[in-house]
Specification:
- The structure is a single chain.
- The protein is 48% helix and 0% strand.
- It has 56 residues and is an all-alpha fold.
- The termini are far apart.
- This is NAD+ synthetase.
- It comes from Metamycoplasma alkalescens.
Length: 56
């Protein structure tokens, strides 16, 4: 992060909107929900275990 750069600006939604989505996705702004789903999908590789190579 750079000085004067904030997560909310980079993400395109506020933490308040994110918390609202987490609590009840159906009650959140559809545009925000779409952004959150896209980010979740884009970063899925970070939540998956590292594949193991062949045994030597």
């Amino acid at each position: 992060m750079l000085n004067n750069q904030y997560d909310e600006e980079e993400l395109g939604f506020s933490y308040e909107e994110f918390e609202k989505y987490i609590k009840n996705p159906l009650d959140s702004n559809p545009f925000t929900a779409k952004k959150i789903k896209a980010l979740h999908k884009k970063t899925a590789h970070k939540r998956n275990p590292i594949p193991k190579g062949p045994k030597l």
